[in-house]
């Protein structure tokens, strides 16, 4: 139900389809030094998922990493009223019905700053995505900035990603590129992330990349240098 990646780092993988394409979805659960849980991009809650999470510890943080990944956030916020819900500023306007306790900035919340670094990816206001580095496990968390789908049984998915030149590698889609309004700003943000010490990349769509994550991310965004 929750697959361990390393000590204190777990993922929950679920089917996810959009526009007829099978992209898959993933939530990441990380145990904080105090034993509480930090949950990135919560997926649909069911009894099994909730039981698996509860078995790990108390939920301290629920994180919406961009303005797109919010569909299930309300259910988790209701189930865990003591958890602190954090999200990009733009999500308040998009979902005024959601309980949001704090807005993400480039300074991590004090409750998890001891083990996380975070970066707003500038230049894409419609997405407003934050990347997170869990320093103890050298794990980078990416939401929609890039996919890493190496195989797919769906002809439509394979065709779409091949046309996007993203099939089989860590890279952004054409849709993501269309959201970029300021390449220089995004490039500066990415350079900051590439200065972090990480090896593993956990994406919300596709496979976990266990090794060579920094080099793969640099290669996937080489087009920003053009």
Automatic annotation (TrEMBL):
Q: Which domain of life is it from?
A: Bacteria
Which residue ranges does UniProt annotate as crossing the membrane?
Answer: none
The coiled-coil segments of this chain are none
Q: Which InterPro entries match?
A: DUF4336, RibonucZ/Hydroxyglut_hydro
Name the SUPFAM superfamilies for this protein: Metallo-hydrolase/oxidoreductase (SSF56281)
PANTHER family according to UniProt: METALLO-BETA-LACTAMASE DOMAIN-CONTAINING PROTEIN, YALI0C07656P
- The protein in question is named DUF4336 domain-containing protein
> What is the scientific name of the source organism?
Hyalangium rubrum
């Amino acid at each position: 139900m929750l697959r361990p990646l390393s000590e204190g780092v777990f993922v929950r993988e679920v089917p996810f389809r959009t526009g007829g394409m099978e992209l898959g979805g993933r939530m990441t659960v990380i145990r904080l030094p105090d034993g509480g849980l930090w949950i990135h991009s919560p997926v649909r809650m069911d009894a099994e998922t909730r039981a698996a999470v509860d078995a790990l510890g108390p939920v301290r943080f629920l994180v919406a990493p961009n303005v797109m990944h919010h569909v299930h956030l309300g259910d988790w916020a209701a189930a865990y009223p003591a958890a602190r819900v954090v999200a990009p500023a733009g999500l308040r306007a998009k979902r005024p019905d959601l309980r949001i306790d704090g807005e993400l900035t480039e300074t991590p919340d004090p409750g998890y700053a001891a083990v996380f670094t975070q970066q707003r990816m500038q230049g894409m206001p419609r997405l407003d995505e934050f990347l997170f580095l869990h320093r103890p496990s050298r794990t980078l968390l990416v939401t929609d900035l890039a996919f890493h789908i190496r195989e797919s049984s769906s002809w439509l998915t394979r065709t779409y990603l091949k046309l996007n030149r993203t099939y089989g590698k860590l890279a952004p889609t054409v849709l993501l590129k269309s959201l970029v309004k300021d390449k220089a700003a995004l490039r500066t943000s990415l350079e900051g992330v590439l200065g972090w010490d990480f090896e593993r990349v956990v994406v919300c769509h596709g496979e976990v990349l266990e090794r060579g994550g920094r080099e793969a991310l640099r290669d996937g965004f080489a087009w920003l240098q053009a």
